[in-house]
Amino acid sequence: MGLVLILAEKPSQARAYADAFQKTAKKDGYIVVTDHRYFQDHAIITWGFGHLVELVKPGDYKKEWGKWRLDNLPILPDHFKFDVPRDKKKQFNIVKNLLNQADEIIVATDADREGENIARSIIRHAGAEHKPTKRLWINSLEVAEIQKGFKNLKPGHQYLSIYEEAQSRQIADWLVGMNASPLYSLLLQKKGISAAFSIGRVQTPTLYMIYTRQQEINNFKPEPFFELYADVNVQNGVFKARYKERFTKKEDVQALLVKHGLQEQENGHITKLTKELKQTKSPKLHSLSTLQSKANKRWKYSPSSVLQTVQRLYEKKLLTYPRTDANYITNSEFAYLKGHLSAYQSVANVSFEVAYPAARKRYVDSSKVQEHYAIIPTKTVPSQKTLAGLNAKEKNIYFEVLLNTIAMFAPDYQYEETNVEADVKGIVFQASGKIEKVKGWKSLFLHEHEDKEKEQEPKLPAMREGEPALVKPAIKEDVTKPPRPYTEGQLINMMKTCGRAIEDEDAQQILKDIEGIGTEATRASIIETLKNREYIAIKKNKVEVTKKGEILCQSVEGNLLSKPEMTAQWEKFLRLIGEGKKTKEVFLKNINKFICHLIEQTPSQLASISIEHNIEEAQNEKMIGACPSCKKGYIVDKGKFYGCSGYQNGCRFTLPKLFLGKKISKTNLKKLLSAQKTNLIKGFKSKSGKTFNAYLQLKDGKIEMDFGNKN
């Protein structure tokens, strides 16, 4: 067989693979494996750090492309170059040397399109694409799953088309970003804003959808409405009931009361009483997005932090692969979950009688599992010591997945729903209530608070049809409410379901098939990008568009860049590339046409819109405080540091964003500029790695530490 090289995506993944083999030896940048169950001779595991190979910057093609100038656009290379970032060159050279020695390569990066792109880009850049390859395709880093995967390796050539698909998407995104970002930035700077704007196929329509919701809120005009309620008094108690229609004028309600001759108190009777036993099944298994939404709603965790947490639990072999869009598992996973059920119950400290020992389509459906199955616990049942070693966020996420998974074995939640109608002089008032009968799977989630509306669900007194009732009608006035701002968790769902709001049926269907814009792996990072670019701000878990974000949205309004349809058009073609029916070259040729059209049309489009007022507000929003050096300019956010707005007039005063490993917040910076001293800042790191707390003070234009009362 010769030398077999196993290419992992990152060091933690490589270490997990090594744990599955009999004898290993750690070297610099790789691990030597000896295990004759799998390899005739020894094998070597090596790794990247995610993308070891990246697309080069425009200036590496042409020197003039390195500068943002309108006359340098469009940036459309004839062919695309890849290179290794400086901080990753050492590891790449190790991998390249090993690839060139190898007789066979096992691609063992993450089992998805991006994992394939990462591996093939490294192999191609190292000049080893002619070598035979096999593919490891697994969803868990448990020893048993890894061993099973290495015994069932797939032919590597079967996955080349999804590499072409992923790289086509990567290059197209680069082309849009490298052309649209300077185009809009330079044109908007001509209008007076001193900021750079980042444009992206996914991030820009995501921002625009948030902006649209904010506009709906800002432009919302409350309108009064009136409802007719009644207190209905029967033999065993009193309950509140409502007339089904809503009125826009109080006079209309009063006219209804006059028409039927209703006074302050009237005799009526119960005309209808129905009771129905209902039941609900446990929630579907978690995909990454449902887990992100649940964790954000319950603990206010950001989608990005949820992904990072699930990734750590995956690497600790407690949860399965995190970047999955599936809510289903196969019969294989169901079998081991069922086999470990009592152990899982013990870990979660819950007990229930198994109501569903057999697999059900709601949870187990191989036809709906593509690259990855749902996020579930692995076969590794954690000990109390292991659980004690998890931080609070890891425990919360682990137990959420664990309980959500074992709930599919638990009884249904059952309740009795009662609907009642009371007639008084021909006006029918309605009420409903429910009585819990069997808590079922909900007993696993007793620690969660029910929605306020459900908590306030009325309990109706016992009554019978035909029973007389004393009815006291009352008019209630209220106003319509604006839509609520999105939470971070809702942004994930918004990105997944954005196709519903599109009129074009083809685009709508494509976005439904691909589950919206972005992927399970990228949606969280898109939201982080919007925050880092200062397009949105999160306040009490509510998402707000900043003035800078508003300016960009007004600039791309009506443009394909603001619409999810652009992704739909791309994905339709990209899927055909993945199926081997279309080529990357034709796809990129169409992207080039779009970019040329964008560059031609945008100047006149931006010239026709009036955004000067927002630009002025955005400029004021950026001003943090007066410059202590020149006394004329203002300190503004320059991206990687804070600096004076009077730079062009000669003021070179700057302040760092990061000081001794700690980010200086704008709140503390304002205090530093106005009072010459910040609040106490915790978590500075010394050169020796020790953490400490201190105040920062400004003396003669320089930052100094102030330890306050040393006692």
UniProtKB/TrEMBL annotation:
Catalyzed reactions per annotation: ATP-independent breakage of single-stranded DNA, followed by passage and rejoining
Top-level taxon of the source organism: Bacteria
Record's keyword annotation contains Ion transport: no
SUPFAM superfamilies: Prokaryotic type I DNA topoisomerase
Coiled-coil regions, chain positions: none
Top-level EC class: isomerase
E.C. number(s) listed in UniProt: 5.6.2.1
Stored CDD domains: TOP1Ac (cd00186), TOPRIM_TopoIA_TopoIII (cd03362)
GO molecular function, one term: DNA topoisomerase type I (single strand cut, ATP-independent) activity
All residue ranges annotated as the Toprim domain in the record: 3-142
Keywords: DNA-binding, Isomerase, Magnesium, Metal-binding, Topoisomerase
Residues in the signal sequence: none
Domain (Topo IA-type catalytic) ranges: 159-599
Family annotation (PROSITE patterns): TOPO_IA_1, TOPO_IA_2, TOPRIM
Similarity field: Belongs to the type IA topoisomerase family.
Entry-linked NCBIfam families: PRK07726.1, topB
Name listed for the protein in its UniProt record: DNA topoisomerase
